Amino acid sequence: MNIVVCVKYVPDAQAERTFAESDSTTDRVNVDGLLSELDEYAVEEALKIVEAGEGEVTVLTIGPDRAADAIKKALQMGAHKGVHVNDDGIHGTDAIGTSFILARAIEKLDPQPDLVITGMASTDGTMGVVPTMLAERLGLPAVTYASELTVADGIVSVRRDGDAASQTIEASLPALVSVTDQINEPRYPSFKGIMAAKKKPVEKWALADLGIEPGQVGLEAAWTRVASFTARPPRQHGQVVADEGEGGQQLVSFLAERKFV
Fold first, then answer.
1. Can you say how many angstroms the Cα of residue 135 is from the centroid of all Cα atoms in its chain?
2. Which residues, including other chains, have CB under 8 Å from residue 32's CB and lie 6 or more apart?
3. pLDDT of residue 180
4. Contact status, residue 193 vs residue 78, Cβ threshold 8 Å
5. How do the domains of the chain map onto residue ranges?
6. N or C: which end of the chain has fewer CB within 10 A?
7. CATH: 3.40.50.12280, 2.40.240.10, 3.40.47.10, 3.40.50.620. Which one for 2-221?
């Protein structure tokens, strides 16, 4: 079975994240980045499926030079090969354009995948719409928010856990599945995996390689964009209450003033 996992290089949540002053896009250059945590679950699930049978896992990402680190991490986990779509014209692309580029890249792959797996959302945008958009462009059934996944006899079956009930959903292969962070526990790259990743192939494609014309994607073609942004004000120091016998009363007054009690 051939599986493609779509992954994303995102700014580290622990870093000081901001937007570029020039065009209000997410600053992905002056901040440390990493493989989106939610995408690690997608990589792990693909590896588990292949290890239980046979096949290959290809990781696909879109982004600048540093996005290669997302592929590198997935290869260290055990994925077999990677594809990096990197082009200056991608800058500022929104979710709609991203699904378009991903679809063209997947269509270019040979052989075509039996299964496309994604995380439920990216940890920077957290929109969660790209998997369904991508499935629509590829003409594949979309089975989203999987907390459990099995593949057998040409059928993918997932369990989707909701607030009131759990659903079992099936689709014929080929299909696209997005997974939640409840589905597994992603592995840490071993020393053997880290060394093996250095020899694994990574193809680099530009927009022209995918038959995408300038102007079809990028900031100017985006349907949505950030109009303006304002830095979050610094956190204020808290109020220290010295308990000299009336600390409890002061605490209750503080909470009541703010209508917490």
1. 15
2. 11, 12, 15
3. 97
4. yes
5. 2-221
6. C
7. 3.40.50.620
